[in-house]
Design a protein that fits this description.
Layout lengths: L2 H22 L7 H17 L23 E3 L13 H15 L5 E8 L2 E8 L2 E7 L5 E3 L2 H4 L17 E9 L2 H13 L8 H9 L4 H5 L4 E11 L7 H10 L9 E4 H15 L7 E8 L2 H4 L5
Antiparallel strand pairs: 1-5, 2-8, 2-9, 3-4, 3-6, 6-7
Helix pairs in contact: 1-2
Length: 301
């Protein structure tokens, strides 16, 4: 391998490392100017040697030529919708049904914000992002891989030990409030159309036939689940799912928490409601899941 090829490989590794520090951990190690120098050098080498460009190179996040349409994607495992409860009494009644059905005296839960964005499925083969799809009707979605590749918090390649041969990561792509406001201010200054709200902004951005438009939108990801999994031990609990995703470089909402019983769930809901205006993203409630995955399938909420 030539020195330029080795340098390109090292630049890709460094850039993705710093992407992860900045977009996932919110803990950058270098300045924006230094990051730009690394990125510009990678682009320079790849322009001189296009045969070295890899699908998961950071340079491919900028998007390619427009596509004529979105292809359909059949989900290997359905992406199910959630049941709803709007009062404490409804939550208590649901827990009582679960306790009776499972013949247990107590249940642990994982609570996390219900992000007001777009549910997506991200399939990684050999650790590399191979397919991204919308939820659609739960059985069939749309192939939005080219657009999702432009979202900097979505890892193009999973990191860490124990990366499976195949895994379907499920999550929510959303538009942060600050990014939404900044985008609209810039659009207004140019005399262009603004976005109605962050959720519409995320949905519209992911359905652009020209991924270069998506690349210019402020989007981010929170992972929350695993669908199909091959080549790694299956998680036993929802909390384990979150730990696995974090270990692989997938951002997980830092407000996710394991709690015991309905009272702790209600405390979590109240805490999140008090902090709602400072979260930095729009929510439309709280997701509560039974932590034990063997039990969760019979008590999904």
């Amino acid at each position: 391998m030539s020195s330029d090829a080795e340098r390109a490989a090292e630049l890709r590794r460094l850039i993705e490392h710093h992407n992860h520090r900045y977009h996932v951990l919110d803990d950058p190690e270098i300045s924006d100017a230094e990051y730009d120098r690394l990125f510009d050098r990678l682009l320079e080498i790849e322009r001189e040697h296009p045969e070295w460009v890899e699908p998961d190179s950071p340079s491919q996040r900028v998007g390619g030529e427009p596509r004529p349409e979105f292809a359909s994607v059949e989900h290997a495992l359905p992406m199910l919708s959630l049941d709803k409860a709007t009062t404490r009494d409804e939550l208590v009644a649901w827990e009582a049904r679960c306790l009776a059905r499972l013949a247990v005296e107590r249940l642990d839960y994982v609570c996390e914000p219900k992000i007001d964005g777009v549910a997506v499925s991200l399939t990684y083969e050999g650790g590399r992002l191979a397919l991204a799809a919308t939820r659609g009707d739960g059985q069939t979605g749309e192939d939005i891989t080219a657009n999702v590749r432009t979202v900097h918090s979505v890892p193009l390649k999973l990191i860490g030990a124990g990366v499976p041969t195949l895994v379907e990561v499920r999550g929510e792509i959303y538009m942060p409030v600050a990014g939404f406001k900044a985008f609209n201010e810039a659009a207004q200054a140019r005399g262009e159309r603004t976005i109605v709200n962050p959720r519409n902004g995320a949905a519209g951005s992911l359905r652009q036939l020209d991924a270069r438009i998506t690349a210019a939108r402020p989007l981010s990801l929170f992972g929350y689940g695993i669908g199909r999994l091959e080549g790694a031990p299956p998680p036993a609990a929802q909390a384990d799912v979150h730990a696995m995703l974090r270990a692989w470089g997938v951002p997980v909402n830092p407000r996710a928490r394991r709690v015991c019983g309905v009272d702790a769930c209600m405390d979590y809901i109240g805490e999140l409601e008090r902090d709602r205006q400072t979260l930095g993203y729009e929510i439309d409630g709280v997701v509560i899941k039974v932590d034990d995955l063997a039990q969760q399938g019979r008590s999904a909420f």
